[in-house]
Amino acid sequence: SAYRLCTMRKLPSVLARKLTSGTSGSPVLPDMSEVRSRLRDIVGASTNWRDHVQAMQERKALHTLLAKRQEDLPPRRMKDSYLEVILPLGSQPEIREKYLNVHNSVRFGRILEDLDSLGVLICYTHTKQETQPRSPLSIVTALVDKINLCKKIIYPDCDIKFTGNVSWVGRTSMEVKMHMLQLHGGDYSPVLDATFVMVARDPENKRPAFVNPLIPETPEEEEIFKQGELNKLKRIDFSTASLLKMAPTAEERNIVHDIFLNTLDTRQEGERTVSFRSRKLPPNSVWMEDAKLKGLQICHPQERNIFNRIFGGFLMRKAFELGWATACSYGSSRPFIVSVDDIMFQRPVEVGSLLLLSAQVCYTEKNYIQVRVHSEVYDADTREHQTTNIFHFTFISENEVPRVIPKTYG
Fold first, then answer.
1. Looking at the domain assignment, is residue 196 inside a domain?
2. Do residues 215 and 253 share a domain?
3. Which residue numbers delimit the HotDog ACOT-type domain (predicted)?
4. Domain span including residue 214
5. Does residue 238 share a domain with residue 260?
6. What is the pTM of this model?
7. How far is Cα 122 from Cα 117, in angstroms, rounded to an integer?
């Protein structure tokens, strides 16, 4: 199958930490609006944009609540941060419109927004101080390590359930594993698995802050924790192997050279007269530079997060939608998202920014299309561009797609 099987770690439902309780005796799962409301309460964020400066000033006083050392914080268990949240698309049809796309399935960009909010709340649950209603920590998304989907279609008229917990902790960072399931025939079946990495910072979001250590309790939890540590080491290795820091490997050089030789125009008389600049496109191929789409977003206050920066989920949604449009126009048929990898949040986006998005098909194989989306902010005063995010999306198209061919070394 082209789709990876989702693996779901089952925790006893009795461990599910609920934000609300029903009067009938059975707990009522919170929905996404309650998640966002709870986040505002934890941080003390203002719902009025005009009051945001004062709200952030008030957070400065929380500096005194920060731990001086990680050892001063009580350890937590994985089940301490476990949450279940409902997205009632089936039972509350009035919210369906927000999630509906033209193909009568769920907009995946909206799911990215919900995962981002839930990941932050899970981390606040892990770091909660029982005696303090407000948290001194500013918890922000550092990167989306991976999202794997095992369903092509997410139905717009069936309830969705999100579950998740902290799965690994460093000194100032936390890995969060989340799962999404959808109700069919009375049972919830897996749709996707997601791994996010969050970082904790001080109340003004200026410096790193310590978080509670995590204690695995079972052999299964030990494995999950070890995998989190391996994920961290892989990210370090990947960053040090960047082409901006290291020369390509021998294998990479051979691949690049083969592509180059296959695009040389050898129709000229004699091999000696072949020019390095004379290139031709192989059959059923597209130059990479011709497989681009661009977009612009004005970052309005409506899209702000609890720290009055632009919400990471909004950035992911906009990048995904441009990436989807790029894959759609490239493959000339409807693409389906298969995987999301390596979304790096390099710097925050301020409210009022001009956000420039550039999507490019960077690899193809049979029906698969890999799209890279580069996000940057433009400062109209200084006329400077600064990269904020890089996104990687893998789509599968209904039909086989042309090969994408790079023209330049870059």
1. yes
2. no
3. 81-204, 289-401
4. 28-243
5. no
6. 0.83
7. 9
Give the angle 401-407-408 at the CA atoms, nearest 5°: 140
185 CB burial (10 A radius; 0-12, 13-18, 19+): exposed
Q: Are residues 300 and 321 in the same domain?
A: yes
Q: Do 198 and 174 meet the contact criterion of CB atoms below 8 Å apart?
A: yes
pLDDT in tens, the chain (410 residues): 444 445 444 443 434 444 443 444 446 788 888 888 888 888 776 667 666 667 677 777 788 888 899 999 999 999 999 999 999 999 888 899 899 999 999 999 999 999 999 999 999 999 998 888 888 999 999 989 899 999 888 999 999 999 999 999 999 999 999 999 999 888 999 999 999 999 999 888 789 999 999 999 999 999 999 999 998 888 887 777 677 778 888 998 898 888 888 888 766 555 555 666 778 888 899 999 999 999 999 988 888 877 778 888 889 999 999 999 999 999 999 999 999 987 888 888 888 889 999 999 999 999 999 999 999 998 888 888 999 989 999 999 988 999 999 988 88
Is residue 236 domain-shared with residue 255, that is, in the same domain? no
Q: What are the tokens at 152?
A: 């092509």
Question: Both 255 and 219 in a single domain?
Answer: no
Comparing C-alpha atoms, which of 182, 139, 186 is closest to residue 162?
A: 182
Q: Is residue 11 part of a domain?
A: no
Q: What is the CATH number of the domain that holds 312?
A: 3.10.129.10
Cα–Cα distance, 42 to 121 (Å, whole number): 9
What's the total number of domains in the chain?
A: 2
